[in-house]
Amino acid sequence: MAVSEKCDERANRVTAAQAYGEYLMRRSRLGGVYRRYLLYPRICHRLVGRAVDVGCGIGDFLQFRPNTVGVDVNPHTVAYCQSRGLDARLMKPDVLPFEDASFDSALMDNVLEHIADPAALMLELRRVLRPEGLLLIGVPGVLGWDSDSDHKVRYDEASLGATLNSHDFAPIEVFYTPLWQSAWLSRHLRQYCIFALYGNLRPGASVAQPTDR
Question: The pTM is what?
């Protein structure tokens, strides 16, 4: 590849990363109210201790929950988080920049569906979680999936569970936002999501149970 082609390819990546960051920042006031008063409290009730938000975007959850570190592959959103005084780190794809067993909980909120093959990242999550740690993953419903052209893999409850089970995470709970399981809401409400809470199952380990619901 010629030098000019390499420069063009890098420029396209930078432009795409910046554009996606700007897309995330175009959140509505109503969306902010939903996250702050409905979604984030439900997520927090299922996380324990020190947490990592993988794919932290513009950092709204980092601001909401203390003792949470964010990582993202997008340098523009990471820089934006840092400008807000939040603890956000730039990560390479499928590489979490932390020591083994660094976290009690991990969150991936509307991130997994952007990854064509999550196997390497699942191994990294197992590595940075403590043996009894918790992993909470949220994926969009039908309309949410259709609303973002960057989505790579569509998940339902069964395929999400199969992905986590195949990497030795133990199931704890499945729930739906903003209300309950509903095919109609999945088709008509972009905020509708499936959330799965799993434990980092290792020999001799017991899965931590959230206690603040």
Answer: 0.84
